[in-house]
Amino acid sequence: MAMKLIYWNSKKQSDFKTIECILGEENPDILFLSESNKNLFEDNKFYLELIDYEHFENPGCQRVIILKKKNLKLSLAIQSPFYTSVKCLDNNIFIISVHLPSQMFQHMDGLKSHIRLFRQDIDSLIGDSSKVDIIVIGDFNVNPFEKPMIDFDGFAASNSVNLRKKITHLQNTKELYYNPTWKLYRENSFPGTKYFRRPSASAYDVLEHHFLDQVVVSYSLSQKIIEEKIKVLEETTTKVFFDKMTSSILESDHLPLIYEFKT
Prior knowledge:
The structure is a single chain. With 263 residues, the protein is α+β, with helices and mostly antiparallel strands. It contains 6 helices and 19 strands. It has helices at residues 16-26, 39-43, 45-50, 108-125, 147-150, 219-222, and strands at residues 2-9, 30-34, 53-56, 65-69, 74-80, 83-88, 93-99, 134-139, 157-158, 166-169, 172-175, 177-178, 194-195, 209-210, 213-218, 227-232, 242-243, 248-249, 257-262. The strands form 5 sheets. A 7-stranded mixed beta sheet has the order 5-6-7-8-15-12-9. Strands 3-4-2-1-19-16 form a 6-stranded mixed beta sheet. The chain has a two-stranded antiparallel ribbon with strand order 10-11. The mean pLDDT is 92.
């Protein structure tokens, strides 16, 4: 079975035509949106239906909106202010979309603590990485290589598809996740989904482009995937999201992230 997921932090800068363009041309099973207004989709419900999509209500999470294909069967799973989760009834995969706190107002240690608690929620309320098929997609507000994502006491997400099932540290054992977002570092013209310098206007951190938007996959699902593709959406036939000449993001301050896989 194949699935295609898109996540986009739109920063409230898009109109319905932009969303319609993404749905029409990319044809995802689910489009997750952050910093968007759900009234936009209620007001355009008729046009969504014309292209066989619908707004899927997820009370309990205000930071992520779900648009899905009408024939895709979902059930709500755990909800929180910072993430939403659904279970796809056709393949028993849990899909979690996140919009975690911003680096602008949080210390990295605070973000790591938040991500650690998020991972604990998944383990206790949905299941173990080695036993349950789980995908997490969204704005983590840290890079794949930063400590909140890779540390044992963070999310524990590996850069290898041939990952270990679990690791043990001082008699504590934790199961790992696979992070396919690392594949996107092959592109060096714009290696990221968001552009910003940090700390503000200083040269201390030389990074300019960041993959704050990521995908992580449970060990169980990673062993079943026979084909996967991950990419950043730079343009469609009617919309340009990224201007290569100026290295500027035009429609938001994030670019849409697309992940598709086949099991």
